[in-house]
């Protein structure tokens, strides 16, 4: 339908000169996109000799490609470990972020609720008190957290419920989304210390949890518009039939926004897959991910271009394939988010 | 909350528990997200605030933290680290005075217009005052460090990446989207192809561009040697090094602008375009009167998303140039990272907080003064 509307009928309308310019410009940008990728790909089939003796451009014509670098990186070196880490961390954190984020987004769009301002204030005050107690007075953090938790519960049960001032859905939503503005470098030091205390440093769990948190705001931002866009009556009739809100969410709302979820999932997956700074802090050997491994290739003998190219190729190949297949969903999903976000 | 007034009878407990659960389901659904963000955003932010106000030192058997007030910030803004964050100020001449006068005039004009409309609120005034002050200070630092004899610091470098990078990416993305939005063959091919750079890891892009830009062994080496510039290296000069970072960043992020703007262009009212064309409107008129109003809200939002991410840049300069030559390509995140590596945790947190402050003010201002009006414009 879309295709019939504006593809064939109007092709002749364009002046031939304009058409030539259009295609020339598009071809030029295609070259801009392809040349770097092509160079990485052929460099991965070169050896030290081919790289050092000046540029060679076409395999089999001006140099003989070899699989040496591939053999070295994939079979002799320990590349599969980081690769597996990257796969596990990216997939798990993306799944978690999409699940938690879409749950929150759905509730923020569909269910009115309030968070008492007094409760938030008490929580923050207790949090600051715990930090000061641990940092300056040397209280055991387990003790401080337990005491603060008890105090928070008591205040919830006693006076918080009687106060009036409250935060509505839109306040909570704005707060969640605004977390994305925070540069990760501000938060990464305390997160590092936190995982050190929990003895989770350099584990996949630490990376999964952190990536989930970092990408959560994007998920909420995008999915809230998908949920806002679906008609209410289906959900309402299910609720009249006695289905709980959770049931409505999982059996009716989620399936309706499938394509939007695919877009969100893919975008977050790419972000998690390519993330560098947090991985640099939170992993060093066991849980090392691919971006960190790639950046670590700059050895004292200078960068080993051929080995590095292999890493870059294996890193981008799967996402390029997945995203090329699904990219139409991405554009549409992002569009919905961008229009109303 | 008055439902408890219903008398509870024998079979009721289980049902009322289910009812309670259903009534609370909104909160329960939001709770995981809130807890995750509290643990990984709010809690770290508070600790970072504390760190930025203290001095960290390694001590036998661990470390010590000493509260030193605003000393870390003072060091960055006026003390020994000023050259690093703000840069070295040059001689301010007539040109610099003129630029600053224009900037000040513009900001005052915007403020005055707001007040003269007579709908000023306390929050609105406060927000505008902060935005004006930040804009003025950033302009001042930029102008002063670009003056004769000045050296830009990490704030100015970050601003360059953000402002120039986002502007160029938006321009290129919009241009490509307009080209692809025309009735051409192979649109889907271009759409898939142009999308690819977005998925390449920034670290990989940095190394790729180092390979490409290699003066002796890169693919363009023969070309450069023909022009006789093989002795020169882009990495040794401030502007060429910055340009390399910007080129890498643009290569990666233009696709993002392109893909969303193209989707927006395809969504514009088709009948209006056809009608305008029948009436003899040229391409520019159609763009100005139909396409641009239709895509303005989307355009404003993608720029906002890019702004938010652009402030966090670290991978490219770190791998491409290591922040050099000198400080020429060091972004604020890289600055903070380097401070962390040299055990200056307080300084690192202070730089991070400066970045948080600047990017929050810029992004929130952009949202309030550009994105919101653009959306209102549409509806």
Description:
The complex is a heterodimer of chains A (341) and B (379). Chain A has 16 helices and 4 strands. Chain A is mainly alpha-helical. Among the domains of chain A are: 78-113 and 169-301 and 328-341, MetI-like (MetI-like fold, Orthogonal Bundle), CATH 1.10.3720; 114-167, no CATH class. Chain A has a two-stranded antiparallel sheet. Chain A has a two-stranded antiparallel sheet with strand order 3-4. The longest helix of chain A has 36 residues, at 305-340. Mean pLDDT of chain A is 82; it is low at 1-12. Chain B is mainly alpha-helical and 379 residues long. Chain B has 2 domains: 3-52, no CATH class; 85-89 and 150-378, MetI-like fold, CATH 1.10.3720. Helices cover 71% and strands 4% of the residues of chain B. Chain B is built from 16 helices and 4 strands. In chain B, the strands form 2 sheets. In chain B, strands 1-2 form a two-stranded antiparallel ribbon. Chain B has a two-stranded antiparallel sheet with strand order 3-4. Chain B is globular. Chain B starts with 11 loop residues before the first helix and ends with a helix. Chain B: One of its GO terms (cellular component) is plasma membrane. Chain B: InterPro entries: ABC_transporter_permease, MetI-like, MetI-like_sf. Chain B: Keywords: Cell membrane, Membrane, Transmembrane, Transmembrane helix, Transport. Chain B: Residues 155-366 form the ABC transmembrane type-1 domain. Chain B: Belongs to the binding-protein-dependent transport system permease family.
Task: Considering the chains and any ligands shown, give keywords for the structure.
heterodimer; A: 341 residues; MetI-like fold; two-stranded antiparallel sheet; two-stranded antiparallel ribbon; 4 strands; 2% strand; globular; disordered N terminus; B: mainly alpha; 2 domains; Sugar ABC transporter permease (chain B)
């Amino acid at each position: 339908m879309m295709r019939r509307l504006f593809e064939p009928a109007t092709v002749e309308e364009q002046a031939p000169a304009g058409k030539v310019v259009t295609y020339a410009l598009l071809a030029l940008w295609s070259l801009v996109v392809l040349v770097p990728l092509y160079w990485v790909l052929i460099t991965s089939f070169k050896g030290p000799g081919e790289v050092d003796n000046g540029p060679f451009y076409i395999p089999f014509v001006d140099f003989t490609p070899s699989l040496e670098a591939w053999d070295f990186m994939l079979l002799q070196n320990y590349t599969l470990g980081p690769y597996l880490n990257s796969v596990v961390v990216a997939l798990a954190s993306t799944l978690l972020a999409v699940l938690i984020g879409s749950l929150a987004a759905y509730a923020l769009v569909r269910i009115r609720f309030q968070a008492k301002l007094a409760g938030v204030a008490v929580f923050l005050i207790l949090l600051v008190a715990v930090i000061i107690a641990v940092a300056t007075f040397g209280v055991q953090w387990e003790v401080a957290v337990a005491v603060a938790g008890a105090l928070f519960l008591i205040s919830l049960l006693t006076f918080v419920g009687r106060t009036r001032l409250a935060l509505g859905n839109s306040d909570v939503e704005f707060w969640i989304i605004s977390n994305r503005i925070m540069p990760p470098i501000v938060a990464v030091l305390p997160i590092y210390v936190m995982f050190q205390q929990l003895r989770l440093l350099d584990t996949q769990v630490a990376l999964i949890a952190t990536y989930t948190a970092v990408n959560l705001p994007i998920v909420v931002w995008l999915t809230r518009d998908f949920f806002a866009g679906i008609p209410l009556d289906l959900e309402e009739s299910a609720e009249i039939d006695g289905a709980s809100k959770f049931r409505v969410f999982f059996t009716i709302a989620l399936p309706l926004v499938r394509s939007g979820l695919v877009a969100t999932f893919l975008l977050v997956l790419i972000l998690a897959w390519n993330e560098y700074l947090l991985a640099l802090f939170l992993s060093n050997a066991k849980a090392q991910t691919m971006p960190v491994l790639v950046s670590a290739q700059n050895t004292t003998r200078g960068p080993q271009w051929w080995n590095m190219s292999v890493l870059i190729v294996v890193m981008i190949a799967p996402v390029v394939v997945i995203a090329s297949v699904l990219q139409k969903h991405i554009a549409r999903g992002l569009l919905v988010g961008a229009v109303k976000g | 909350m008055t439902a408890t007034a219903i008398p509870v009878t024998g079979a009721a407990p289980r049902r009322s528990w289910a009812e309670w659960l259903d009534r609370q389901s909104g909160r329960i659904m939001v709770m995981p997200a809130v807890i995750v963000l509290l643990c990984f955003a709010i809690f770290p932010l508070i600790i970072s605030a504390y760190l930025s106000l203290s001095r960290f030192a390694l001590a036998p058997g661990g470390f010590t933290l000493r509260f030193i007030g605003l000393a870390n910030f003072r060091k960055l803004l006026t003390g020994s680290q000023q050259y690093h964050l703000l840069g070295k100020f040059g001689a301010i001449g007539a040109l610099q005075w003129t630029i600053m006068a224009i900037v000040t005039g513009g900001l005052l004009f915007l403020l005055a217009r707001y007040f003269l409309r007579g709908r000023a609120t306390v929050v609105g005034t406060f927000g505008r005052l902060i935005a004006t002050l930040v804009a003025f200070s950033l302009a001042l630092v930029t102008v002063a460090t670009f003056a004769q004899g000045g050296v830009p610091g990490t704030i100015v470098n970050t601003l360059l990446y953000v402002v120039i990078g986002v502007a160029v990416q938006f321009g290129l993305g919009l241009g490509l989207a307009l080209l692809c939005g025309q009735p051409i063959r192979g649109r889907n091919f271009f759409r898939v192809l142009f999308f690819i750079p977005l998925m390449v890891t920034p670290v990989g892009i940095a190394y790729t561009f180092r390979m490409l830009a290699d003066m002796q062994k890169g693919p363009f080496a023969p070309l450069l040697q023909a022009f006789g510039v093989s002795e020169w290296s882009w990495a040794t000069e401030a502007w060429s090094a910055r340009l390399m970072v910007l080129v890498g960043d643009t290569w990666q992020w233009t696709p993002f602008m392109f893909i969303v703007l193209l989707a927006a262009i395809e969504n514009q009212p088709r009948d209006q375009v056809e009608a305008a064309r029948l009436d003899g409107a040229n391409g520019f008129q159609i763009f100005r009167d139909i396409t641009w109003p239709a895509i303005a809200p989307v355009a404003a939002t993608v720029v906002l998303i890019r702004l938010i991410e652009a402030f966090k840049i670290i991978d490219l300069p770190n791998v491409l140039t290591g922040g050099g030559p000198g400080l020429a390509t060091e972004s604020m995140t890289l600055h903070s990272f380097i401070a962390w590596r040299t055990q200056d945790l307080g300084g690192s947190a202070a730089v991070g907080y400066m970045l948080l402050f600047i990017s929050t003010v810029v992004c929130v201002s952009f949202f309030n003064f550009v994105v919101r009006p653009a959306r209102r414009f549409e509806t």
